[in-house]
Amino acid sequence: MCIYGTIPDPVAVGVWFRDDYEWRLYDVTSAQLIKTAYVDAEKKLDLTIKSAVHTGGARYTVDLRTMRQTNCASGMQRPVKINMPEAAAVVHASKGVPMTNGVQSADETSEPESVISSELPTANGYVTVSIAF
């Protein structure tokens, strides 16, 4: 799959990924995990998400520094966008994380100090989450 054409960024509040032809919202559980990791100034988040395309679940890493999602099996990358109410962005900035146009920037060569993993049930199956910090 490829990303086709140029489309405007989403403006509605939510956690979005760029599909082949449009921006799509993450499922509620994944979106909340991504927002929490972002507000807490985490560097990356690993998710296993079941979907209509990946009924057995597919592993993704969301890099919260570059705002890109990578499929761990195929290496396919897609842009990610987090549109939060102003108050949440202020909390994120208060963590001491430099922000440029609402996107966290950090030293990409630094290694995470520790990783926490957990499997959470969802309405459609489960989501496995790993947070590096």
From TrEMBL:
Name it.
WWE domain-containing protein
Q: Which Pfam families match?
A: WWE (PF02825)
TM spans, by residue?
none
Q: Where is the WWE domain?
A: 1-82
Source organism of the structure: Klebsormidium nitens (Green alga)
Coiled coil ranges (UniProt) are none
